[in-house]
Design a protein that fits this description.
- By secondary structure, the protein is of the alpha+beta class.
- It is built from twelve helices and ten strands.
- The strands form two sheets. An eight-stranded antiparallel beta sheet has the order 2-3-4-5-1-8-10-9. A two-stranded antiparallel sheet has the order 6-7.
- Strand 4 and strand 5 (228-235) form a beta hairpin.
- Helix 1 packs parallel to helix 4.
- The protein is globular.
Length: 356
């Protein structure tokens, strides 16, 4: 049974959402009275309620999405809310759709998108993973954070070749190491207000840490927003090298640590915006002629299912005319297709830039 105190908070939260005229989140859009009444008394096997799902969006009325999944089961138990949000955000992933099986494809067909280093500053591909059998942030205990970190650390220590590196736990980190990781833009800070409100930062910094290889081209964030964020990156436009490194790393980690995957939704993580392949392939790129008219750049990028952001990601400005451009679609296609979509789109943008 859901506690009365939780039900009271849910009722207050729902009322607050309804009365917020300036709120445009997907949570507000799809949490109708009917859906709310259906879901408010449900509880997952790990103890998650609707309150865990919506508390961040209720607290932050300026959220774009406004909901998180406290555990894997939430995506099915609260599907009346998650399904339409997923469909809307991912621009067409209906409740009857099924995400394809994982497929990294033929890596030899990928290329260096900018062999003469004229436009692309750097290339990065990342994915999110959750450890099977553990809840997501709001429902994790201190012991579970610790346990997951130990498992991941043990597997990362077996990395060899170019993936060989060092794990830096946030607990007890000295100032010099901390400053170095900040200078390298590697260190994540304690969660932003959206994550704080979702209860994603409890027991900080227990169980959190960063691994990077000696060349600093491969990185794993442990227990930041997701259980794992696996990142491969390097200067220049060699997407083939970057993605190959990521695939090798994911397969190595998976040998010992099973990931949470759903037959319909693909890989599951804390945020419904990051499901399916969970792949975000991006370049930092300068396209001065195209970007002279930002609307035009966004319009052209949109034709190739690409998303344009400022240099430091979402809600930031371009620095020195450099934009972060990435694949938009993560669901309903394979990992290879997501990366290939980014590659082919960037090649087209470069071609257009050269023709102007």
């Amino acid at each position: 049974m859901v506690d009365q105190s939780v039900l009271d908070k849910l009722d207050a939260g729902f009322k607050k959402l309804q009365e917020a005229n300036n709120c445009h989140s997907l949570l507000k859009k799809y949490l109708s009275k009917d859906v709310f009444d259906q879901l408010k008394t449900r509880k997952t096997a790990m103890g998650a309620t609707l309150l865990d799902v919506i508390q961040s969006g209720v607290e932050n009325l300026d959220s774009g999405v406004g909901l998180y999944a406290p555990d894997a089961e939430s995506y099915t138990l609260f599907k009346e809310l998650f399904d339409p949000v997923i469909d809307d955000y991912h621009q067409g992933f209906k409740p009857t759709d099924k995400h394809p099986q994982s497929d990294f494809g033929d890596l030899s067909t990928l290329v260096d998108v900018d062999p003469n280093n004229e436009f692309v500053v750097s290339t990065r591909v990342r994915c999110g993973r959750s450890l099977k059998g553990y809840p997501f942030n709001p429902c994790l205990t201190q012991g579970q954070y610790q346990e997951m970190e130990d498992k991941v650390k043990a597997q990362l220590s077996s990395m060899d070749g170019e993936l060989k590196g060092t794990y830096f736990p946030l607990t007890g980190m000295d100032k010099k190491t901390q400053q170095q990781l900040i200078d390298d833009h590697f260190l994540f800070k304690e969660g932003d207000r959206f994550l704080q409100a979702a209860n994603a930062c409890r027991y900080w910094p227990t169980g959190r840490g960063i691994y990077h290889n000696d060349a600093k081209t491969f990185l794993v964030w442990v227990n930041e927003e997701d259980h794992l964020r696996i990142i491969s990156m390097q200067k220049g436009g060699n997407l083939k090298e970057v993605f190959t490194r990521l695939v090798t790393a994911v397969k190595t980690i998976e040998q010992k640590i099973p990931f949470s995957r759903d037959d319909r939704l693909g890989f599951l993580t804390f945020c419904p915006t990051n499901l399916g392949t969970t792949i975000r392939a991006s370049v930092h790129i300068a396209l001065p002629k195209l970007a002279a008219d930002l609307k035009k750049l966004e319009e052209v990028a949109g034709k190739y299912n690409l998303q344009v952001r400022g240099t430091r990601g979402e809600h930031t400005e371009s620095e020195g005319g450099v934009y972060d451009i990435s694949n938009k679609r993560r669901m309903g296609l394979t990992e290879y297709q997501a990366v290939r979509e980014m590659q082919d789109g960037i090649l087209e943008l470069i071609k257009i830039e050269k023709s102007l």
